[in-house]
Automatic annotation (TrEMBL):
It comes from the Eukaryota. This is Putative leucine-rich repeat domain, L domain-containing protein. InterPro entries: LRR_dom_sf (IPR032675). It comes from Rosa chinensis (China rose). The lineage of its organism: Eukaryota, Viridiplantae, Streptophyta, Embryophyta, Tracheophyta.
Length: 131
């Protein structure tokens, strides 16, 4: 999934809720410049938070819920992705999945890419639900 440069200029709140087929998410520079709160919940295939989050200085709260322990340890303090979100004042991680409930982290053959395109400047909140 790709959030393109200049996309979602007025988006303030985003929830990714049980997008189970999502493995990779890319946020380009200047995408979501007003994002304040981000919630990632139940996206068990997602491997990491996108690099572009470090550019979103307006982000005040990141909530991670029901995600695999590998993902959670990457974003926690000292994790390899912590630098991407260290500027966020509030990091909430809840309901971490034990190792035996984590999905296989192998690349699926023929996986397709989802590109998110803004629907219009009037949207202030968006939720992406399971695919």
């Amino acid at each position: 999934m790709v959030f393109s440069q200049g996309g979602f200029p007025h988006l303030e709140f985003l929830t990714l809720d049980y997008v189970v087929m999502l493995k990779e998410w890319r946020v380009e520079k200047e995408a979501m410049p007003r994002l304040q709160r981000l919630r990632i919940s139940g996206c068990r295939g997602l491997r990491a938070v996108p690099d572009g989050l470090q550019e979103i200085t307006t982000l005040k709260e990141l909530t991670i819920n029901g995600m695999p322990s590998r993902f959670c340890s990457r974003v926690g303090e000292g994790g390899e992705d912590f630098y991407k979100i260290k500027h966020v004042p509030s990091l909430i991680i809840t309901n971490i999945l034990p190792l035996d409930e984590e999905p296989e982290m192998e690349e699926a053959a023929g996986a397709s890419q989802v590109v998110a395109v803004p629907a219009g400047d009037f949207h202030q909140e968006s939720t992406v639900e399971g695919m």
